[in-house]
Amino acid sequence: MRQTPLAAARSWALVRLTDIAVYVVSGLSLLLTVDQVRIVWIDHNSSGISLPAWSCYTISAAAWIFYGWVHKDRIIVIMNVLWVVMYVLIVVGAIIY
């Protein structure tokens, strides 16, 4: 069954709205992680940091980079490269401090 033009437009609008919402949430989450980086690197406080957990987050984000690359989704690649940078900073800081 074919969609009507109005149904197709609504479907496209929902997809676009969902994309924008996810980009905003991911960006805000990234900004919140900056505070964790600050705590580790500026305050030299890595207490409460789970090295295995943050290492797994890093591996997970690296897998998403590969996924985004395979699917040619630039936004997924860019966001997860930023996540990997944050995660690596936290992991390395936790090891040092």
Question: What would you say this structure looks like, in words?
Answer:
This protein is mainly α and 97 residues long. It has a single domain (5-96), classed as Monooxygenase (Up-down Bundle), CATH 1.20.1280.290. Helix content is 82%, strand content 0%. It is built from three helices and no strands. It has helices at 5-41, 51-70, 74-96. Helix 1 (5-41) packs parallel to helix 3 and helix 2 (51-70) runs antiparallel to helix 3 (74-96). The longest helix has 37 residues, at 5-41. It is elongated and about 60 Å long.
What keywords describe this structure?
mainly alpha; 0% strand; 3 helices; 97 residues; elongated; Monooxygenase
Condensed summary:
It contains 3 helices and no strands.
Task: Please write out the topology.
Blueprint: H1 5-41, H2 51-70, H3 74-96
Order of helices and strands: HHH
Can you tell me the number of structural domains?
Answer: 1
Mean pLDDT: 92
Secondary structure category: mainly alpha
